[in-house]
Amino acid sequence: MGKNRRWGVILDAGSSGTRLHIYQWKDPENAIHSASKGELRSLPKLVTEKKWTKKIRPGISTFGDKPEDVGSDHLKKLIDHALKYIPEDKIQDTPIFLMATAGMRLLPQPKQTGLTRHICSYLRQNTQFSLPDCDLHIQVIKGETEGLYGWIATNYLLGGFDRPTDHQHGKGHHTYGFLDMGGASAQIAFAPNATETEKHAEDLKLLRLRTLDGSPAEYKVFTTTWLGFGVNQARDAYVHKLEELYTPSKSAEFPDPCMPKALRTTLDGDPVRETKSTKPILVGTGKFEECLKLTYPLLGKDKPCPDSPCLINGQHVPAIDFDINHFIGVSEYWHTTHGVFGGKNDEAYDFATYQKRVKDYCSQDWDDILSKLDDGKNDVKNAQEACFKASWLINVLHEGIGIPRVGIEPLPEFNVSHGTIEHAKKKGFLDPFQPVDKIDKIEVSWTLGKMVLYAAGQVPPQSRDDRYPVGFGSNVAGTPPDFQFAGSSWRPLSQGKGNGTSWDSESDDFLEKARSKSTSGLFAFLFIIILFAYLFRKKDRRMRLYSKINSLFRQPRRFGSPRKGASRGLSGLTSKLFGRSSTSYDRVMEEGEANQFELDDVESDNEYSDSSEGSRYGGGGGSVGSRASGLATPKLNLERFDSMMMPSSSSGSAIDRSGLVVRTESRERLVPNLQMLNAGRRSRAGSPTRLKSPLMSPLQGT
């Protein structure tokens, strides 16, 4: 594709497998010169292709007892695939990340550490990718971090960042909320309205991006995780409740209203054919309304709320203003609304329509459902679990989070242009909730959000006095102690190590163009070279360029003929034009190609996402409501970490094994901390017992 392109590689390590993602974007310093005014106010444009993705099984967590085999038996296939597409001279300048989500989070810490160390050692010894810091590039990330990356990816694809005027939802709000549900947990990320932002300032994360013109872009985002509220763990909790409810009876059969009629399974969900069994058996009754009532208590709405407001399980969440907060749901939100219940891919979510489909499906006899299925094992399992998942999703969305019920309750009016609102209505993005798998044919993946953050960190700041780095951390002034850097630097490729594009190679490009020019255009091209000559500063490069250009004009000298110094080549021409030859050259900045890239299609295996711990289904990517009264809002009961260790090594790293871990060699990392030391956090006397879940944990010694 061109010399001035950046590449990035991310390995999404989920529970069922690992998926390779390759992204590419134009080097920001070159992209600036060919960008329009609108593009200058936008984030860097990333591109990917179907063939740049690859998923293999099983998940890396299966190597917990044999970490020495994870490289040769697992990672090698993905690395070999990446090397097919990334140019050889770009590999050393290409960062590689492996970020583990589901599966790895469930391993004991010693096994996690052993695996990540073996992974880093293998990649360093067997590849030339940029991997300067193991703790930066090889991580087990928390659900909150994953949720924030998903929020970035969603708004990047929908245009909430680059075209805010086209996405005004009212009250100056132009971003979309993000909902993700996997097997073991569920995430939420959104920007509250102005009132809630001020009221709950210390609960928010400050996200800093940088547009192509170097302008800072700041967002204040709330993100949290409900551990144990993924569909698989919720199902386990539900079955346990059934055991408690029916154990006193002498019958070994427990009626289950969350399964189709006459479906018989063990408590673990394995189908049972025999009519009699000594072990407890679940027998489906297909009564969906009763299923909704039995799953509702699992939300924990009766739990104490020490830091109001709360939504689910007593966890604090700022109040959600559904007049302006519109949520995109991925992973289980997509599969559970579209899988066995049908529906077109671009169909907007309608609660009344969806609930009717679920009732009709779950009231069928299991043998009738089974006769319409393929023989695939996953199809059968999805069919027998669909009714429970649907009831759980409905309760979480509408009773837990408080999403208005589209199709039953009225929706707010929108103050946007007619064309914009009609397009958004068609896609459902102006509804309080819309499940998606892809946006404009692009699969929603948190890995995209991570790489958008990385690419934004490579944009030079508009002002040399702007030292605020790209990344995210606590919502305080300056650069907070827990700030997680984007992991990139805004150094130009020519100053980086590895095989990045050099100014010499750009000079060669000029020479190649010169040879292809006609005689009539040659002098115009020469004038351009002389005009920009002052940009070349280094003497060795200046002399090489001068010699090459001079050779274009020098006529071959016959053997034995006298030399005519200034009368030959460029020396003679410059002498006649300027009186003497010029020996001072500066750099020539190539404007680069004018082609603008957008993300291409990403192939989706249409499997269940690994976005949360413990998901039983594959998928490394993601996918993109109903009114409760007023503002609605959960409190994360995890241990609070108020600080992290910041090593003062020459590598300039900020290390976090659980959340985002980054490394920067730019001056962004050298921000003075004097103001930061005196920047106090906003007091919240009314919530002394509130515990927060930061996106990072302290450094552990190696």
Question: Please, could you describe this protein's structure?
Answer:
By secondary structure, this protein is an alpha+beta fold. The protein has a domain at 505-554 and 563-578. An 8-stranded mixed β-sheet has the order 15-14-7-8-10-9-18-19. Strands 1, 2, 3, 4, 5 and 6 form a 6-stranded mixed β-sheet that branches. A hairpin with a 7-residue loop joins strand 20 (653-654) and strand 21 (662-663). Helix 6 (143-158) crosses helix 15 (446-456). It is globular. ATP binds at residues 183-187. One of its GO terms (cellular component) is membrane. The active site is at residue 146. This is Nucleoside phosphatase family-domain-containing protein.
Write the layout of secondary structure elements.
Elements (H helix, E strand, L loop, with lengths): L4 E9 L4 E9 L1 H7 L2 H4 L5 E2 L6 E3 L13 H14 L12 E5 L8 H18 L7 H4 E3 L2 H16 L18 E5 L3 E6 L3 H6 L5 E6 L5 E12 L3 H16 L6 E4 L7 E2 L15 E4 L3 H8 L31 E5 H7 L12 H12 L3 H6 L5 H25 L16 H10 L5 E3 L2 E2 L2 E2 L2 H11 L14 E4 L9 E2 L17 H14 L2 H13 L7 H15 L15 H10 L74 E2 L7 E2 L10 H5 L24
Parallel strand pairs: 1-5, 5-6, 7-14, 11-13, 14-15
Antiparallel strand pairs: 1-2, 2-3, 2-4, 7-8, 8-10, 9-10, 9-18, 12-13, 16-17, 18-19, 20-21
Helix pairs in contact: 3-4, 6-15, 9-13, 10-13, 16-18
